[in-house]
Design goal:
The complex is a heterodimer. Chain A is α+β, with helices and mostly antiparallel strands. Chain A folds into two domains: 78 residues, 2-Layer Sandwich (Alpha-Beta Plaits); 74 residues, Alpha-Beta Plaits, CATH 3.30.70.1150. Helices cover 25% and strands 39% of the residues of chain A. In chain A, strands 5, 6, 7, 8 and 9 form a five-stranded antiparallel β-sheet that branches. In chain A, strands 2-3-1-4 form a four-stranded antiparallel β-sheet, covered by helices on one side. The radius of gyration of chain A is 20 Å and the shape is elongated. By secondary structure, chain B is of the alpha/beta class. Chain B has three domains: 169 residues, Rossmann fold (3-Layer(aba) Sandwich), CATH 3.40.50.970; 171 residues, Rossmann fold, CATH 3.40.50; 171 residues, 3-Layer(aba) Sandwich (Rossmann fold), CATH 3.40.50.970. Chain B has a six-stranded parallel β-sheet, with helices on both faces. A six-stranded parallel β-sheet of chain B has the order 11-10-9-12-13-14, with helices on both faces. In chain B, strand 19, helix 23 and strand 20 form a beta-alpha-beta unit. In chain B, helix 3 crosses helix 18 and helix 9 packs across helix 14. The chains are: A alpha+beta, B alpha/beta. The interface between A and B is medium-sized, with 31 and 33 residues.
Chain lengths: 182, 588
Amino acid sequence: MAKSKSAYSDPGKKGKLDTHIIVVWVDNEAGVLARVVGLFSGRGYNIESLAVAEVDPKRGISRITIVTTGTPQVIEQIKLQLGKLVPVHKVADFMRGDKKIIFKEMALLKLVGNTSKRNKALKVCKKFNPVVLDKTQKSVVLQITALRREIDTVMGDLKKFGLVSVSRTGAVAMTRGSEIFK
Amino acid sequence: MSKLYTGAEIVFKCMEDQKVEFIFGYPGGAVLPIYDELKNHDSIKHILARHEQGAGHAAEGYARSCGKPGVVLVTSGPGATNVVTALTDAYMDSIPLVCISGQVPTHLIGTDAFQECDTTGITRPCTKHNWLVKDVKDLAKTIHKAFEVATTGRPGPVLVDIPKDIQFQKAKYTNFKKQKKLNGKSNNRFSQKDIDKLIEMMSKAKQPIFYTGGGVINSGPKASGQLRELVSITGFPITSTLQGLGSFPGDDNQFLGMLGMHGTYEANNAMHDCDLMINIGARFDDRITGKIDEFSPKSKKVHIDIDPSSINKNVKVDLPIVGDVSEVISLLIKTIKKHKPNFLNSNKENISKWWEQIGKWRSVNSLNFINSDKTIKPQFAIQRLYELTKNKDTFITTEVGQHQMWAAQHYKFDKPNRWMTSGGLGTMGYGLPAAVGVQIAHPDKLVVDIAGEASVLMTMQEMSTAVQYNLPIKIFILNNEYMGMVRQWQELLHEKNYSESYTAALPDFVKLAEAYGCVGIRAKTPDELDQKIQEMIDVKKPVIFDCLVDKEENCFPMIPSGKPHNQMLLGPNDQKENKITGKGKTLV
């Protein structure tokens, strides 16, 4: 390690990084997203993706889904620090790959090209519930829902079929079966 | 129909309901309606600071010394940005502050108006919570909630930003109802089972230690009393962090002194070698733990804290107990008395070897220094100050640096809330305005700011506040003409390259005192020190005491960074064998 003139202690051993999905229920009030995101940036936590929208208009509750990476200790801190914020009602967390959780991301894909290319493109997307949202003589807009890595792969595969623009949401999550997040 | 009040009136009605007696503030355009209303509320006195940072620290001093939240009132823009240091300081040291700031009228927000800044944006990371009030109907509810957030759980600062038009608009005043829980956030999450487990660990321990912190003070004076009982019925040794000083008597035989970077030899070695560490209201700060990988390697660790996010943040613990210190200790004592009434005696033999070992460490006498009859040693000055003020229920504030550590080492506190120092943020310039706030809360007590000449110049203007309100605070400056702690690190870690740590052209502090309309006293030699300190104590006016001390004295003991607790630098005689080299340098 190069000598730094930092006045603080040595970084210590780095733990193993895991990817977690953190779900936060918050009061839908001014600045609440800034508080959550500011907590991540201020304490040096990562945000891989973020999805947020109001889910209970009557009570004014928004649900924020954050995909993050960190050591187990950092993930624990993220949960506890989030829990301390005044507008936060509850925090749930699970590891990516947890079998009990459904976990989806949506992407809009615009392809420009002849019919044969567009049909091939549609075939590539077949596994990921493609919906044609818009169609012209030379273009098509597709909607797919899949896991992050699957969308990454699809994007690579579609390059040669005239993919010109991509718009993706962050991941959202839901428990399987009758159970709900606690 | 019930009466309508203006926003400004509502601010004061809320404060009256919250039993606020003092506001520390500074007026300006965007808070003028609130200042206009001040005259109609006799039960609330406004203390005019000379800078908003000073107002903030004064409110901190007030809050720490009397346990009530400090209230700060500032204007928009620069008023709000100036108070940010004090808010951050309060956030780091868990001090309850309620800051009310003016804001430009709502229709001008976002237009870069005169004295506009994004106050809630700027203060978001340095408050527990903040609010921008955009509807006068929400004002009362918001202010009451602000007081609740500031004072419950782990205390801290909050800010309410009130646009000027809201201060003029009218609304009904809703009476204040105490909420049970904030979004279901409860403070006590421990059970009898946790306490039983702790007692089991305690009765097995052969080398136990209590490591206590500011959480004991924040839990109220009752907690300090309970801590004393707990320590006495267990016979365990106890050490305290900087913030925890005073929760246990500093001259008690079971007290090992402060721990950490400048803690005593016995406290740090006991922390390193213990087999059971019971952390009560402290947070494993980096100035305490030293090198984290080698921190107390053999111990089981118990952590009692009101803030669940403090648990396992820096150090992994074996038994976390989330709860208010006072409630945890009270159940602990009750359970010990019920199930192990004879704990002290049955346990004596268990830990007798441990006390023997501690005795050996103690005999090193690590706070020792080589005194002089020609120049005043700073440690000697603190010792004399202590001897001459210990029978007076004295309140001590400090700035930040060597003098702060010497004060912590050599001034012995025996009551909580008597020691106000900026530990987390380490804010130079904290002590003088804090002393103003302490003296406001305790007008008849002796309040001394143990200061360094560099720190105190950062907020020197607050002497004017002290004079205005006849606050006889004593500013006891250990003047070595250096930023002493910077100089010490440069000597030990940067090959004596004293880059910019010497202050040329210091003011004449005695004349400066006179210019402010207070009293200046200077002490130059050890033999005149006692008489001059006595003179300072006897004067019923604010005093600036210019104590000329040895310019090259260093603060020992010291954990040379990059080293664990059991490898300390002990002082001039020990330094040759223990040079800080290489990697250690980066770690201080």
